[in-house]
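Q: I'm writing up a methods section and want to include an example of the input and output format. Could you take the sequence below and give the corresponding predicted structure tokens, formatted cleanly so I can copy it straight into the document?
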Amino acid sequence: MRFDVVALVAAAASGARLHRLPRLLRLRGGEDAATDGGGGLTFQEVTDKLNRVPCFCLLRADGSLAPISADDGTAVHTWYLDPAEAREALELMAAAAADELDGEELSLGVTAMGTVFEMAGGWSGTPGEADAAGAAPDPSALRLLGPRASREPLEAQLRAAGLEPGSVVVSIVTHDDAQRDDGTLMPLFFSPADFEAGWVRLKGDDLEMPDGDALMVMELRSLCAQMLGPQGGQLKVAQFVASPDAYAASSEATPWPAPREEEGEPPPED
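A: Here is the clean output for your methods example:
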């Protein structure tokens, strides 16, 4: 699989056009979207696309976030796109901090990706404030991590280029032929394994799957920036697709932040 993302990140930071974008935008019907005066997608449209994807964190018994120790020992509030990684982190933390927890049970929390993306500075490249029902942690201690299989190569390439991965480390994997024949859907996956499973669901076993080296890989922040750009309308049919395990786990996890309770009607006056 080609994993040339360093140029994409650098180009996005400088405002240059991403060199892989023309191929990614070769969508059926995409040319019409680029010439009908619609321009790029709106911030809300991109956020709505992101919010279709659940991501997972660790929660304490009182519903507050449980930070995870990063490689440098700092406490970081971390969200995972892969629920298996979140469960693994939960087990490790429960074992490592057993004395501190004193019998308190940790649980899996779930947050829409658009919320975490904004909190972690996905739009600006630097962490920023977010309104999360007054419960948002320090934004400098947030991470949004894609599945390990696609995240670790991205981190390695960025560091080899002298760049720190930052607080959002998520890759997008897709292929032109993954889109629907009628041009109404372009699925965007988060790992090669997700792509393979999605290909079978969308195309069946009869159509040969593209070779791994033919897959296209983009960094999430770069892609979102392009969605907002003048050609972003061509990606109106793009849809982020999480793994079936993620969707199943999201129905069992506890929402964070907790939904605000609706204020009731005032009692009638006597």
